[in-house]
Amino acid sequence: MPELSLRRVGGLILPAVLVSTLAAQTNRTPEDFVLALGYVERGLHSQAIPKFERFLERHPRHARASEAWYRLGVCRLETNRAEQGIVALRKAVRSRDFELIAEARYRLGTALQEKGELDAAASEFGTLVERSEDDHYLRAAAFYGRGECLRDLGRDEPAIDAFLDAAEAGGRNGGDGERYAFYGGYQAGFALLRLERFQAAERLFGALAQRQPNHEKYAEVRYFQGDAAYRAKNFDAAESAWRACVERGGEKTADALYGLAWCRVDRGDKEGGLRLFERLIEQHPRAAIAKRGKLEVGRLLHEAGNHRKAARVLEPLLRDAELGAQALEVRAAALLASGDTKAARASYESVASSLGDADPRAARLQYGLGESLAQSGKWREALNAYERAAQAEDPELRGDARYAQVVALHELADFAESARRAAQLIKEQPKHRLAKEAAFARAENLFALERYVAALDAYERLGDEHPRRPVARFKAAWSAFLGGDAKGAAPRFEALVDDAALDAAMREEALSLLALTWHEAGDAERALRAADRYHARYPNGGYLPRTERIAGRVLRARGELDAAAQRFERASRAEPDSSNAAELELEQADVLFEQGDFDAARKRYRAASKREDRAGARAIEGLAWCAFELGDDPNCLRTIERGRSHPGVDATIQAGLDELAISVFHRGEKWTDAIGAAQRFLREHPEHERVPAVRYALGVAQARGGRAEDARDTLRELSKVERSTRVFYELAWACKNCGDVEGAKRAFERVAQLNDDPDRVGEALLELSVGSIEDDPSKARAQLAKVTGAHRGRALYRLGFSWVEEKRYHQAAKVFEELAARGEAEPLYWEARFMVGECSLRAGDHARALEHLGALLKREPKHERAQRARLYVGECAVRAKQPAQGIAALDRFLGQADDATPATERARANLWLGRAHADRGEADRAEQAFTAATSLSVGEVGAEAQFRIGETRYAAGDREAAIEAFMKLSILFAHEPWVPRGLARAAECYDELDQPEHAKKFRKELRERYPNSDEAKD
């Protein structure tokens, strides 16, 4: 089996984290650590090790000590010091606040796995996934690694869960984890096979093949899918999978052909199986499985009567250590059947068997042998004897043997062959004394094959003089009824009701069937009259429960529920079979349920629910429905579980209970439970008529339960067969929630087309605008303009943001003003006022921004946008040369800021606060604010603040301090235009200090790092 390279995954970790930390931390962490990071960044792990070790020795409690242990462990692993690496990584994972703990734990797990400490490795991988977010890039790899460890420990059950989790995480998170979407399922499939959970394995391998049809392992996956399906006796699925394997080709082709052949044989198509075994031998003669194919060719040729050819085919296998004994046995039977008694005897002796000497009366003896075997119920052996006896010269004996074959085949349930041989006997020996019996037997076989139309014709062809004519007429009526012609069967049963040639029991049954056929034919009146007639003639008849039940159903359908209840009661009293009586009681309970008398119905159901047959299961189903209608969900669920485990439950009842459970969970908004119940329904009742409704319920539950991708897949498949508004609406939101923009767009378009509700249409248009806002803003704005009703405000809001995205802030402000004009009753009113202010700020209209943002702060000081409004008011005031107002707003912003306030906003506030103090000549306060900004931002705001620290110091006349600030800017940041400005200003300061060499170095660095900057060109 293929294995994933976990080392390759691990190799991606270090570079990914260094890029984000090295530059920003250079002057904020002890030098040893910074240098070590630099070595690591350049792949110099040996040089990095002593630096990390010295850092940890000097700063064992430093905030980045855990990170240092992690990186030290990685360096040791990379330099083949596995034991030391594991020690370092174990120290790293002791911290719960360590930012890179997931990477450390993963590397520790892989190191332990490679060392063979599988339990410990599995534990580390498990802890990683428990403590990481669902979208963490290492979850798939960790799940897979845990699965490998558990598998190698022989613990397949938990390994399956781990591998499936790896597949799910890999498919969800994408990127490098995509491999796990395949291999996680692949390994889980093998574990399921080892546990002999074949249906689950077949579904899993099938899903893998469907999702990744171009994968290099596609043919292999299809082979194992077929193997699992075959073991689960699902021959359709097995054949489909194995054909796909053969079509793709590869090393499993021969095995797949072998499996296809067995599917054909197991389904009764031995000729098709023979052709496939022969194809295997011809196309893959050197394959290991070819020998077994040859054995089956011999066996099938023998069973098909081609005994000599079978013996020739099996000859090369006789000395085979593995298959020789089987080949000898089949060959012996073939030789015996072919008449080669001497060779057969020799072969049997090879397998410790003997047939004795040939007898000149072989045919008659074989017929007698067949009769004795038949009397013992050994029909297959009897059939073989009859077949040999049928070779007799005596036509009478031959006919007897051939008719005996018909009987034996019928007993073996090979009705098709029995019918064929009966027809053959009639054709070839029409004068034989058993020819008429063969004709009746042929009709019986056709009846057993459920070929009721052909059986009806066969019964009618027997003629009036046939000794079995009365029974044939009765069976002909049955054939018409079972063949779907209830209306045609009714007159046939009517003719038998008073037929003296028929025995009394059949006449009574015919009258009861008359009621049944008219009922099935849809003629309720005639069905009721026949039931009344039966009751009058046979008041204590054996079929009274049937006819009274029919009468009850007719009356129930009419709405005459009281009369129906009486007939059901009579049927119940007359029913000797307790299970049938219980069924009748259930119908009475159903009547009460339909009347809405759930308490009374519950009493009836409860009485029957103690039974352990189907009636008991039906009663429990009724109890569950009563509890549901009465709003007692806990009791309903308990009753459903009781019904599922009931010994009398069948697929129909189970399906009803399963669907009811879905409804209960939906009503209680228990989405995880609803998902599980719906999936179980679809898994266990794939052909049920309620599948579309359950798929919809599943999709809704998945959507409400936060499983948007699953909901999308479910609803998308459903939309192919049920094109309704509700399906497309749910599909649209599911697609949207899982990021499937195109899918959401198509579904919302269908919603807009199918529904004339202005609010729903407006919502669809609103969502459609999202999909087109980037590609075709004009189209999106046209869609938004059409939105009316409840979603008009949201449409205007989004329309405004469409202009914001294009940085056309004047147009955006106009739209937001239109939204604000809807008045304070509009939910987005104050949001609109804020956006007018923000857009005005960005457009440079600071007075207008102050007007709207000031109104927000005055009327809604606790609005969720108030803090940001204070930030913007502070900036606008500073830009408008009103530093005092800016300081007041920014001080209040910072005073109300807490840990939840984004650091970027606090940094920006400090930046503008520093600029305000600088404008007032308050250098100390300005630098204090700028310093606070640099501690909060490693981005452009921090870079600007660091630059302004230098400018503030320069303005105060301290050139040395200014240079220090500009140097720090060039080390900590890489943001234009501030870093090149800082380098240029540092050079100018050195010029003013009369230090031209230093100034020259800074200008060189400026030209090398930022050759296209304005400062470099000056």
Structural features, described:
The chain has 1018 residues and is an all-alpha fold. Helices cover 76% and strands 0% of the residues. The longest helix is centred in the N-terminal third of the chain and has 18 residues, at 156-173. The chain is elongated and about 135 Å long. Residues 1-27 and 348-361 have low confidence and may be disordered.
Mean pLDDT: 85
The helix content is over 70%
- Tally of helical segments: 57
Low-confidence regions: 1-27, 348-361
| Rg, nearest Å | 43 Å
Largest sheet: none
Q: Tell me the distance between the termini.
A: 65 Å
Please tell me what the overall shape is.
elongated
Supply the helix-strand structural class. mainly alpha
| Total count of strands | 0
Tell me the β content.
Answer: under 5%
List the helices and strands and how they pair.
Layout: H1 6-10, H2 13-25, H3 31-41, H4 45-58, H5 65-78, H6 82-92, H7 101-115, H8 118-130, H9 139-152, H10 156-173, H11 178-194, H12 198-211, H13 218-231, H14 235-248, H15 253-266, H16 270-283, H17 290-303, H18 307-314, H19 324-338, H20 341-350, H21 362-375, H22 379-389, H23 395-411, H24 415-428, H25 435-448, H26 452-460, H27 469-482, H28 486-497, H29 504-520, H30 524-537, H31 544-558, H32 561-574, H33 578-594, H34 598-608, H35 614-629, H36 633-644, H37 651-667, H38 671-684, H39 691-704, H40 708-719, H41 725-737, H42 741-754, H43 758-772, H44 777-786, H45 792-805, H46 809-820, H47 829-843, H48 846-859, H49 866-879, H50 883-896, H51 903-919, H52 923-936, H53 940-955, H54 959-972, H55 978-992, H56 996-1009, H57 1014-1017
